[in-house]
Design brief:
The protein is of the alpha+beta class. The protein is built from 5 helices and 7 strands, in the order H-E-H-E-E-E-E-E-H-H-E-H. Helix 2 (34-49) packs antiparallel against helix 5 (156-170), helix 3 runs antiparallel to helix 4 and helix 4 (123-148) packs across helix 5 (156-170).
Amino acid sequence: MAQDGRTHDDLVAGPVHRLVRIELDEANAPRRTAEAEHERAIAIYDILEDNSFSLVGGEGEQLGGPFHLYLRAEGRHIRFDIRDNGDAELAQFYMALGPLRRVMRDYFQVCDTYYEAIRTKSPSQIQAIDMGRRALHNEGAEILRGRLDGKVATDEMTSRRLFTLICVLQTK
């Protein structure tokens, strides 16, 4: 919490602290399932509709945008390429995926179960699986926020949607 009583989410939620463009570098990506493509499209749409995103400077201050974000999977890392509205590079860094691997693996398994359940299970069974899927999604988003700490500040919902996009980049 800031000295003036504002929370972390309050600090990153200004009109210039947002993403206005997101692109996934998928040049070498294998073809994904219709479900994965749908998740990608929804996550990008939702982020662009409502997000909170800012760069964190050397002194911990938040740098305003608006921002363009380019994400690319490179081996065991995700490359974050953050640019300004004129597409000039502002920051680029790599985030190791190791701390996210377990939750991503579990998330993929539960998602597969969820998509199968939609076709064959009762609404109460689907709801139970979806609750587990949401819990893993929340856990992944929290880990992601921690991994981005000191580089990028986001709110909870933006972090959830970015976790979705990272998962999409890892989908085989």
